[in-house]
Model the fold of this input.
Amino acid sequence: HEIATTIADLVKPMGVGVVVEAQHLCMMMRGVEKQNSYAITSAMLGRFRDDARTRGEFLDLIRHQRNGG
Done:
C-alpha cells in the first residue's frame, strides 16, 4: 500500500495498481524447507479500485505474464 500511495502522491495518475510477489527464503532454506512458499499482496487506488473492468484487465495482464504468456 505504501508503494501505491507514494506513486499516487508523486505522479498523480488516475489510478495505481501494485502487485508484489515475494518468496519466503527463510522458509525455503531452513526450518520447514517449504520450497514453494511465497506471498502475493496488492493495492489498488483510484480507477483500479473504483472500476472493476479496469482492475480486471490489469489483473488479467499480470496473470498472463506470470503464466509465461
